[in-house]
Amino acid sequence: MGHRKFLAVDQGNTLLKLTLFEGSEPVESCRFSAEAIEDLFSVVERWNPDCGAFCSVGKIDSRMVESLRLALEGRLLLLSRSTKLPVKIDYATPATLGLDRVALAAGVASIYKGESVMVVDAGTAVTLDVVDSDSTFRGGRISPGMRLRFESLHSHTSALPLLNAEGEIPVLGDSTDSSIRSGVVMGLADEIVETFRQYKNKFGCSRVALTGGDAGVIASCINSRIPADHVPDLMGRGLLYIYNYNEI
Known about the structure:
This protein is α/β, with parallel strands linked by helices. The chain is about 40% helix and about 25% strand. The protein has seven helices and eleven strands. Strand 8 (about 125-130) and strand 9 form a beta hairpin. It is globular, with a radius of gyration of 19 Å.
């Protein structure tokens, strides 16, 4: 396999995330608006990858995929429900299971072999899933992400301002702004901590693998409370693992 250059493309609800691997190690990453096709191909031209994989949480942009396939001379895996997987899926409605959750489960299986892990993707939505010690995806929880929580407080009330996670995040807010940040950020952190404790008791989870756009903020709020790893390239690692499993 050597040090071939592998491109992982993750088209999320809001952002298009690219990670370049040389061999098994991530070497560069970037993110754009989810529809930024021109930005995508300027990066592809600069990085000149040998092969890649594409995952989308929603409707697949066929023009983007076919252009990527041409750029990679056919060596592109489009993750779909028919793709052979290195993980098992134990889910009541597999036809509705987000492919991003599948790719993250593969990422967990590639890193934490023989461990039961709770994987948290803190993006537009927050998913809290269990991947058990025999690399089986068991399911989990889906709740609103941090940005949606801030926006909901603002849009569904008459006086609360629209904020984000930038600024003081106290345990106890002493102003409206700090109270909102505490409620949204610390509330989400508490949700993750309590879910982990439940999953640890029921499924034997040993740690949390935390990824997604808001993972850095969340990590700082939970690291002293539960064993948690911030793994920004978890999706890319999962796509690489799936690509290698399919031997394209």
